[in-house]
Design brief:
Structural class of chain B: mainly alpha
Helix content of chain A: 25-40%
Distance between the termini of chain A: 48 Å
Number of helices of chain A: 14
Oligomer: heterodimer
Number of helices of chain B: 15
Shape of chain A: globular
Largest sheet of chain A: 6 strands, mixed
Number of strands of chain B: 0
Shape of chain B: globular
Helix content of chain B: 55-70%
């Protein structure tokens, strides 16, 4: 069974919410729509205070190159346009909406019928994705239309669909495959057409036998979709590792997947692509796992962006359990700890993970014993222990020469360190300092 | 409102710790310890206890009164040093007290002077042993015969004086004709330091460490392999002068050194390639010292010399980058 070439770890899987079917999340009374829900520049608000908006109406326009449109996930009135502290405490431009009813734009097909035929040309598909504000839902929220606009000197050979879900706890990809396999395959076919590649490969780790079976059965009805079960190993869902696992190719340092002929999209994104292209529905909602070892009930919700984390917690469990120590948006390996529960969810949100106090505090750091576990765990073949020492001593350029920028921040080093050294914290600092040095050199 | 923790990812940990690693190494040393008691009796037990107790005590004292840092004696590393140190001395009654000096040098000079566990360039137990070998050459090369004076509480002058030599010592003096039976060498029915006599017990511990992934095969195999091949070549050249390769690797400290001393994480290289070179160097130097040096045994010196090269090996042998 295929997997990536080097490093990797096996965190406890804890996929306790796999059997929870996707539920519709109820509409809140107010919502805050951030204008930066994607990688790149913020969108520009194109509504004014007091305007009536409908579900699916464009409210944030992408003006910069690296940007994505933002549509209103709710109907109601624009209360104000201001900054809002996001879930991680950073002030972002935002549109506040007082919700009133649930009135949708007329051109959105809300029927449950599955629309299979797509007559659009590749260029039209990409334009549609741009118009509907589709971004990558695997975590990085890279605007999808940019990814699928292939430069003339590059050629795509493989389309890879990331259904690995290697992060512990998360089950949103698992559920979407179980419940929307056909839509996903149609979405994949559309993306395949947009790229003009013969085959699309859906990578799924083999700890998900049910989705593998469902997707295999469905893919058999489509042309050029191959389901590829993969050996369980974290971080298989990292773009470079997944490309390596499926094609054997390696993205060189500082290059993009397209430089080795690959385009990778998340399985959730292909569902969003289906909805955008076939149903004319902009990206306004996503599937979010609400899970934690101490929660009585596990959930997978269909949540519209702009609902706050506290709304989700209140609906899912009333109050956080007494012994909660940390709330994470995303998985426990790469997710971000939420510091402001009143912050809104965004396009990139994939889970609300409630971690118990007993697991929320780091153990005391001790001396490095040069066991080399960090190095052996690193999927990029780097030397985390060395970065840690170099960054502490501010020998940033040396860290740069040892390829610190290749780090994908998967966290395998810190995860496996017996001395509990905060290796990734130090590496992140080093990467930022080194980027600063490179920028200064350019000037 | 209740406050939540915030920190950078990852938010989970493998639960691996230095403490676990060190106590597993201690566990791996248990078979060797049992064999030592079986062959050398009360002396072996006393030396080990005194050695471990003094290593732990010295570390605690140094941390409390000199470094003024939180105590790390619970991490088990001082116990590892204490056991290995005891395993590297002869099981004579004199050693019970002398080992205290060895422990002071091992912990004080070998480890704490550099900043404690993880910062020492040389294997602390070997620093202690080599110090003793140079300072107390007579006591360090007086070997009791295994199975004699097992539990006599009285240390008579004769009980130690009439002891036999190690196989390597005999061969050094009397030539290869003095070599004994390979089976005795394997189970450890020979003279020698406390913990080095039984290859069998050492291998059991080493297999446990391999299964626990605390050590990898690279250093032991390249160390023992190099010693085997190099001594084999010499033996083929002249069987009347050189010891055969099987006896070579089963006698002296090669087994203990290759499985427990050279594999010390702190003082050995981190990449597989570096580890292979490290083991090769240890094996080569051991055979050179044994055959052409003044001492009958050279494992400690070989490992210490290679410890000195470790930072260089870490610099030369980088892990293979994914993206290049």
């Amino acid at each position: 069974m295929k997997t990536f070439a080097m490093g990797g770890v096996h965190p406890e899987e804890n996929k306790i919410s796999t059997s929870a079917a996707i539920e519709e999340f109820p509409l809140p009374k107010t919502a805050v729509i951030l204008m930066t829900q994607h990688l790149g520049a913020p969108a520009t608000p194109c509504v004014a205070k007091g305007d009536k908006v409908k579900v699916g109406q464009l409210i944030g326009k992408a003006e910069a190159f690296m940007c994505a449109n933002i549509h209103s996930p709710f109907s109601g009135t624009v209360a104000k346009i201001d900054t809002c502290k996001d879930a991680f405490g950073l002030a972002k431009p935002a549109i506040y909406i007082n919700i009133d009813g649930d009135e949708w734009e007329e051109n959105i097909d809300r029927t449950p019928d599955i629309k299979r035929e797509c007559t659009l040309e590749p260029k039209e598909i990409v334009d549609k994705l741009k118009e509907k504000g589709v971004v990558g839902l695997g975590g990085a929220t890279f605007p999808t239309h940019i990814k699928y606009s292939i430069a003339p000197d590059k050629k795509a050979e493989y389309l890879i669909i990331n259904a690995v879900e290697c992060e512990p706890y998360l089950t949103s990809d698992h559920r979407v495959m179980m419940e929307h396999a056909e839509e996903i395959c149609i979405g994949v076919s559309i993306l395949r057409k947009a790229l003009g590649v013969p085959n699309a490969y859906i990578g799924i780790e083999n700890n998900k036998p049910e989705p593998i079976a469902v997707m295999k059965a469905m893919a058999a009805k489509f042309e050029g979709i191959i389901v590829e079960p993969l050996k369980v190993k974290y971080p298989q869902g990292a773009e470079k590792q997944l490309i390596n696992a499926i094609t054997g190719r390696r993205v060189p340092s500082g290059k993009l997947p397209i430089d080795v002929g690959c385009v990778v999209s998340n399985v959730g994104t292909s569902y969003a692509v289906y909805e955008a292209v076939q149903k004319n529905k902009p990206l306004i909602e996503n599937i979010l796992t609400v899970t934690g070892k101490k929660l009585e009930v596990q959930h997978n919700y269909h949540v519209r962006f702009g609902v706050t984390y506290s709304d989700i917690i209140a609906h899912a469990m009333g109050n956080l359990p007494e012994t909660t120590g940390k709330v994470i948006s995303g998985g426990p390996m790469m997710g971000k700890a939420v510091s402001n529960l009143d912050g809104p969810t965004t396009k990139g949100a994939s889970s609300v993970l409630v971690i118990d106090q007993s697991e929320a505090v780091r153990a005391t750091e001790s001396n490095c014993i040069r066991c080399g576990k960090c190095m052996n765990a690193c999927p990029m073949g780097l030397e985390p222990y060395l970065f840690s020492a170099l960054v502490k001593n501010r020998r940033i350029e040396e860290a740069g020469q040892h390829n610190i920028l290749d780090c994908i921040e998967c966290g395998c080093c810190f995860f496996s360190c017996p001395a509990n050294k905060p290796l990734l914290d130090e590496i992140r600092l080093g990467k930022n300092l080194y980027r600063g040095i490179l920028m200064a050199k350019k000037k | 409102m209740k406050l939540l923790n915030v920190s950078g990812s990852p938010h989970v940990h493998s639960d691996e710790s230095t403490k676990k690693i060190m106590w597993r190494v201690n566990l791996a040393l248990v078979p060797t310890f049992i064999v030592a008691i079986a062959f050398f009796g009360l002396n072996a037990l006393l030396i080990s206890l005194v050695s471990v107790a003094s290593c732990v005590l010295f570390q605690w004292l140094i941390e409390k009164f000199i470094l003024k840092t939180p105590s790390t004696i619970c991490d088990g590393s001082a116990v590892v040093t204490g056991l290995l140190l005891a395993f590297n001395v002869p099981a004579t009654r004199e050693m019970v007290l002398l080992v205290i000096i060895a422990a002071l040098v091992a912990i004080g000079v070998g480890k704490m002077s550099f900043g404690g566990l993880g910062k020492n360039p040389f294997n602390p137990a070997l620093v202690g042993r080599v110090f003793m070998l140079i300072s107390f050459p007579v006591q360090m090369t007086t070997w009791p015969k295994p199975g004699e004076n097992l539990f006599s509480m009285v240390s008579t002058p004769t009980s130690d004086a009439t002891t036999g030599a190690t196989p390597l010592g005999l061969i050094k003096e009397n030539g290869v004709q003095a070599a004994g039976q390979v089976w005795d060498y394997f189970i450890g029915n020979i003279g020698g330091s406390l913990g080095e006599v039984s290859a069998l017990a050492i291998l059991i511990g080493a297999i446990y460490l391999l299964c626990r992934r605390i050590i990898t095969w690279h250093i032991p195999v390249s160390f023992i392999g190099t010693a085997f091949i190099f001594s084999g070549i010499l033996w083929l050249c002249d069987k009347t002068v050189f010891l055969d390769p099987v006896s070579t690797i089963l006698t002296g400290g090669i087994m203990l050194g290759a499985c427990f001393m050279a594999t010390d994480m702190v003082t050995s290289p981190m990449t597989k390639a570096g580890q292979l070179i490290f083991g090769f160097g240890c094996g080569l130097l051991t055979i050179i010292i044994r055959n052409w040096g003044n001492y009958p045994e050279g494992v400690s010196f070989a490992i210490l010399l290679m410890n000195a090269v470790t930072p260089l090996l870490n610099r030369w042998f980088k892990p293979k980058r994914f993206a290049n």
